[in-house]
Amino acid sequence: MSILRGEFSLPGQDPALQPRLVAWVITILGVSLSLFQLYTAGIEPVGLFYQRSIHLALVMMLAFLIYPGRGVRHRRGWLAWAVDGALLCGAMLSGFYLSWNLDAIFARAGFWSRTDIIVGCIATLTLLEASRRAVGLGMTVIAGVAIAYVLAGPRGELPWLGEWLPGVLGHRGYSIDRLVGQLYLGQEGIYGLPLGVAATYVFIFVLFGAFLEVTGAGHFFIDLAYAATGRQRGGPAKASVIASATMGSISGSAIANVVTTGAFTIPLMKRLGYRPTQAAGVEAAASTGGQIMPPLMGAGAFLIAEYTNLPYLEVVKVSVLPALMYFTTVYLFVHLIAVKAGMRGIPASELPPVRSVLREGWHFLVPLAVLIYLLVRAMSPTLVGFYAIVTIVVMAVLRGLVTLLFAEDPEQPRAWRPALLGQAAWLAVIRFVQALEVGARNAVAVSIACGVAGIVVAAVGLTGLGLKFSSLMVAFSGGSIVLALVLVLLASLVLGMGLPVTASYIVLVVLVGPALTQEFGVPLLIAHLVVFWYSQDSNVTPPIALAAFAGSAIAGCRPMDAAIQAWKFAKGLYLIPLFMVFNPEIITGGPWAVVAWNALIAVVALGAFAAALEGYLFAPMGWPARAFLAMGMVAVFYPDLRVEAAGLATLLLVLLGHFLAARRRREEGSDPSPSAGARSDGQ
Predict the structure, then answer these.
(1) How far apart are CA 34 and CA 28, in angstroms?
(2) What are 158's strand-pairing partners?
(3) At what angle do helices 78-100 and 48-66 cross, to 10 degrees?
């Protein structure tokens, strides 16, 4: 039973810098928040304002305790504690004032009291400071600009600022009372849809991931991926791709995926012969794919479901094929690199057998099976997460009891084992509390990001900025959907330099979503998927590629070089959304023959793309063949059946000709592989 293994370290906790009393308060608040979420998810639901206000109050209090004002590496002096004490009071006041006075506030309905406005200002400022600490300065600055934009204008509090706005961006301006009413006292601001999703669906699944993490599921999935692929060429890299696809359903973070799976996969990739930059790039690209892999998709699946008014299960189902296409592309890249360098797999003697891995960890598959079964039965995602967590706890306890009472252990006679039940029960309680705290900690950043994103959403709705941005987008693109998508991609890259993926998606979809659907005719669900996929690219695209930077720290290479490699391996993030737009049947559905045709040409095109970019398939590939592959790819993406067929024929002919040429050279005795004799240790 994994709760009987060693100590478990909480993320972000530094005992040398965190006073014991503060650590205890963090634990109490984290456990309280998680228990509150479990209670409202599976036992007694509460109204949305009660749920969201209490959730955000506890999350902000955790943020101020976990993240000191000057950074986690600095101790807090008496002045810092005085400031943090005031902020803690502000967080508590802002959340509990709303839930305590909710009926009276509803009765006033637009005629807010002076106390309402003052508390609303305190709540907004407190949230912005929590965002600066937990999310980053970029999100705080964007929210501050949004607030200033609302107040600019002839009737606003900052009329002088409105004079500097270009004509198309000008508006009448609003007062502080109107702004605070929109941000704090309405359903379209801080406590709007983004925070609602974070406080219900996202939190319960983040907590589900924390329980899997604490009980050892992460190691199980990594071991299973190694056992399945380790003996193949480039086995650790392929294991990285598979493990990241599964771990993405646990951690909900590309960076967390990198540091979790990369600690095992990157050193082994280097040992096999991958360059450090390649190892870091593969891990970053694969871990980023974990954010587009159902069922969790970070927080994306829940937000897309809410914004499009589609069932959560529907969003998950249509996202499976594009996610598999992405991972297929990354898998092909690592396979081609391995074959090109003549790498071999890890010896079977150094790998755990699949059967033994499954025997030790089969119980981790039961909660996932329960989760999928309940989702198919169309149960509410919050209830699904609740029952999945209950299943984890039950399976962990049963597994521990069976191991303790019946497993053969020569060092522990069976007659003495019942005496260990009390100790095991106490350790189980400790692990349970740790899972509750880890879940709360992991949810802090995403909940605060969603709360601040609500400020931007409120500003866009109040000023009509979304429609103005849409008109600008149409003007700059000249009506070309390709240019419009390029603009979306560039905007997502810029936003992603300062925002987490979830916040970047929310801000971008509010601004460009109406243009994609209304002006360019892109179906609503596809528009949201395109924006969500493009929001992932900041993890792997220079100059700010946080997932690649995390991988470079493990690989011991230059961060920018790792980012360039990750950018190459993750090109599916750019191509697959284009394919969704021009071949919408893979998302919206249609006759099975059409869907199968589109899936076929997409897979062939992505494989050809990987071969052309790497310059190798069955043998080194010359520039003429790579150029023909590029032309065939462009034709496959063109929304015309005849052009698609011509493009597919071109790709298949080039690939077939390359295969025959490589086989002929092998038969003649000239092995085209440049490193056919490379040793498996990469030396």
Answers:
(1) 10
(2) 152
(3) 180
